[in-house]
Amino acid sequence: MIIKGGTVYDPTNGILGEEMDISIENGKVVEEAKKGDVIDAKGFLVMPGGVDAHAHIAGAKVNTGRIMRPEDGRQGLEPKTKLLRPSTGYTVPNCYAMGYRYARLGYTTSFEAATPIIESRHTHEELEEIPIIDKGALTLFGNNWEVLECARDGDIDKLAAYISWGLRASRGYGVKVVNPGGGEAWGFGGNVTGLDDPVPDFDVTPREIIRSLMKANEMLNLPHSVHLHTNNLGKPGNYATTLETLKAVEDITSSMDRQVLHITHMQFSAYGGTGWRDFESKAPEIADYFNKHDQFTMDMGQLIFGSATTMTADAPLEYANARLLHAKWSNHDIELEESSGVVPLFYGRKMPINAIQWAIGLELALLTESPWKILMTTDHPNGGPFVNYPEVMTLLMSKPKRDEEIATLHSLVPKRSILATLDREMDWGEIAIMTRAAPAKILGLKDKGHLGIGADADVTIYDLNPEKIDPSKDYKKVKAAFSLAKYNVKGGEVVVKDGEIVSLPRGRTYWVDATVPEEHAQRVEADLVDKFTKYYSIQKSNYMVQDAYVTNPMVVKAGVI
Amino acid sequence: MREIVITPLKTFSVPIEAEKICPDTVSSLALKEIEGIEVWEGNRKMPLSDLFQISGDEGSTSPKDTLISLKGDFSRVKRLGEKMSTGEVVVEGNAGMHAGNSMTGGEMTIKGDAADWLGREMHGGLITVKGNAANYVGSGYRGESCGMRGGEIAIEGSAGDYLGEHMCGGKIAVEGDVGDFPGASNRGGTIHIGGNAYLPGAEMASGTIVVKGCARVLPSYQLEGTVGLEGMTLKKFLGDLVDNGKGNLYAASVE
Amino acid sequence: MIIEDVLCPFCGCLCDDIKVEVEENQIVSVKRACRLGSSKIRGHERIKAPMIREDGKLVETTYEEAYEKAAQLLLDAKRPLLYGWCSTVCEAQKKGVLLAEELGAIIDSTATVCHGPSIIGIEEKGLAGSTLGQVKNRADLIVFWGSNPSEAHPRHAQRYSSNSQGKYTPKGRKNRKVIVVDVRKTRTAKNADKFIQIKPGTDYEVISALRMIIAGKGDALPEQIVGVSKADLEEAAEMMKSARFGSFHFGLGLTHTRGRYKNVDNALSLITDLNSHTKFVVMPMRGHYNVTGFGQVCAWETGFPMSVDFSRGMPYFNPGETAACDVLGRRETDAMLVVAGDPASNFPKAVVEGMADIPVIQVDPFENPTTYLSDVVIPSAVAGVEVEGTAYRMDGLSLRMKKLVDSGYPSDEEILENILECVRRRQDDN
């Protein structure tokens, strides 16, 4: 097919608002299509399909959220149609709603932010049920006993072999680290308080865990860098831990053409103050650091007012949240590997803490000079559900909209955040970077997030004329247009037309198959046999995710050269 | 007052969902249009006239001046008067589940018995039951922290279990006995029980429960003394102390 | 040929270390499984062929006829109920949800007579849990409340709880204390360090009293609380608070006594209270090997874990209104499909009587009391023995069941797929 005459934003290839044709054949962007349908995109905004680099869309945590929140399930109800299965849920949608809603937004790829190895079968069962989008999952490695032991011993070769094995066992795409060391400490109800606080019984510090994993990640030439949820997340004053963490790894170099570390949902890690009373934004300090260092990236983790369901492997944080807010609390500790928590919340405009948190996310994006360094996310559904992405996009593009919102918030906001003083308004190209080009680059997905020859034919057309519309003033129209794509083309197939789902292709599941020297693989094997014999509650032969759970795989090769 | 009379054409076994039988919905419709209102019998959608006979006054009125008279056995007809904001609904017989749920105003009178979830998530208005009510009177939906927030429910007979669960406001009065766990997890509102109650106010944070009969009181309630209330001497308790609750429980006698 | 690491298709323990010897497509020995699991794996007499009831008698027929008849009965119904699901794999459960959606039916699992109240309790409070390996490796205090694993989950103690050995519990039982709370001295209670006998129906009050003591408010309590001595509760509370890692396992003794989901609700709050003193986790002792799986599948597909009513084209969840026992007990359902469940054995009598008046379709490998109430009987392969697929253990961990032998029978999944096709064809014809 040919998408003719659209106003194209393809920042990866330097195209920023050019009127041009996109030719598609066999699911790929080609020089010139020999045949096919023509979509007239003249006067409309055309971008690559959206790429979500961090959302909690599948697996045990998400399902725990559903099970404990029938009151969420009864929101967002859409009946079944001839083509579609019913949709339920707002913060924890059912699998079909996930796919349909992403597609309507013009997104074509989403990655589950955190899957524990032993429970990855569940993650993939859910991913398989999500229609349309391409997907993947990042595997948790920050608290596994094998990781802690390798980091303690400085044995990067063995650690790399364990990561290789763990990615295969979980059919995962990358190395996710959440509150390293803290998850293990939570096994007996404890936590770690900083980078150099040793993990009980393991004689290793979070600093050592992060550094070891990063070195192993680079040794394996993995497409994505280590993806980190910092220690002390959510605590006032934690920006110091964040900066300390970055400084602790400044000397490590990336083996690929990408960042060496990605810090996720930075809003939750950019707090000043000493407690909730003097809680304030330290986004300027964080942004300043990122402006001066090119080897790091982050994503926003923007708050959306209203109902949210927090879910994270940072279990001690969730317990603290639940106690503070007298909320329902689910916890799930996972033998030898991780822990997690799920707590429903409500973010209120008049709650001073929430209002400041909301401002922090936006400050981070507006103060970071290069949009390649900061992705637009809400850490769905922790900050808020992804259906609200157009809200965040328009907040970034329109100062008048931000002013209007700030006027509704608790009066403490201007005292604790400089958001109101920031005039910057992102343009179409910057938004395309933050939602398409940069997430693909950061994840190392070379065929996503752009429309160059050979790219996957994932294209979105929005009902917006970039020549005529001023996103600063007409933000309501822009938000409406971003909420319901005029066209979403996935792999060369029209899946959404005028906001309606018209086709349900099955997406692919990306995972990384990394090779390591046999010698180290065998050492890991020996450790695993020992652990399964003594400590795991299941047999090693039943552990790994089988082929039956990943029926449409996209295997990315990597490994120690 | 415009009166619209609705009578079942048969005995129902598969339940009917008729949430559109509500003054706000029918007040401006002609009788013929009311006949065409969509209702569900199990998984079958059909017009109201397939299941009910509709008669009464013609002529559009405001919802406030509309009376819907339901004559017959409506015990399997669910969601009557859902979200009504004004006007009147009278059931000359029994009413099905979720009657008067999410009401914000107006009056509903049930001359027979009411099924489960009467006045669920009510915000305002008045519901009167001449007979008995079942479980979950004036309660919330699963998982929600607030159920009934306002309005009044008056039951002349008895009521079942979980009366007023998650109540945040409003008033429920039962002349007879209630079942297990009335006023569970309450954060406001008033419950008056003429008869007996089993473990009232479990995990209550605030609110008032009065039991004029015999109450089985939780060990986590603290006796504070006796008070005179409405011409009776009642024991006064503070609870539920498991969660530092500051609810007031009054009981004439204790099991 | 010996097949190693077989998963047992019986109870929520989902033991995965079973050794099965197969000779010429027959199972000749089963090692390591408990009596219950071994018996299930070995199997017993099977329903030979599909049957349809004619003039009061079940008469053999073909699968095709049975599928058509099933489809017709379900489509004619205005409030069909699809029930069971606990003893089959997730792949079949998914088909069940799809069938319910397309029929506008209610779908519910055996949780309705088992841990349904636990789910409702979790909807109030959440679930502070862990995988079983955490209990094995860390727990130095284990509480069984209204649960008798010695009889219902025979290998639980050895593999996961009281007698298991782990990283911080190398001495197994000697590294632990076990508390049992029950209405009678069960076999599990006989092996406890402390047994508290309570009167039936008083669980809620006892838990509230315990919570008071744990919160330091014990002085406000009398010396006897609903027939239990305060001193006994104080001792138990002290054992719990001073544990390094406690786990609380509860069963039908808590969920099916007076109070039902409120009992679970209060127990979950108790665990949250304990977490401000020490580490504590809670675990419902799920009965059938894949009832947890149904809850997971149903939740990710519909947003709700059980009792889902699709009558109006989208999922509606309201146990008390939409659960199997509710609709059957009120005689409002007019056709029923039972897959991998035996309601005639497990439902209250009044509810079973509701089944007698309506058409019932049974899909099961084995004859059971439900067969006598069925109008269509469709024999299937035994999941986990003759069919591979996914199951979820009581702690939410998913594993893959193996296929050990071939059978001539179709799987539950295939049967449901066929019924669905008949349904779709008939719907298109209309």
Largest sheet descriptor of chain B: 14 strands, mixed
From N to C, what is the helix and strand string of chain B? Answer: EEHHEEEEEEEEEEEEEEEE
Question: What's the CATH class label of the largest domain in chain C?
Answer: Alpha Beta
Adjacency order of strands in the biggest sheet of chain C:
5-4-20-19-18-6-7-16-17
Overall mean pLDDT of chain B stands at: 97
Oligomer: heterotrimer
Mean pLDDT of chain C: 97
CATH architecture of the largest domain in chain C: 3-Layer(aba) Sandwich
Please summarize the sheet with the most strands of chain C. Answer: 9 strands, mixed
Structural class of chain C: alpha/beta
Provide the number of structural domains of chain C.
2
As a percent range, the share of helical residues of chain C equals 25-40%
CATH topology of the largest domain in chain C: Rossmann fold
Please tally the β strands of chain C and state the result: 22
What percentage of amino acids of chain C are in beta strands?
Answer: 15-25%
Largest chain-chain contact? A-C, 62 and 62 residues
Distance between the termini of chain C: 52 Å
Shape of chain C: globular
Class from helix and strand fractions of chain B:
mainly beta
Gyration radius of chain C, rounded: 23 Å
End-to-end Cα distance of chain B? 49 Å
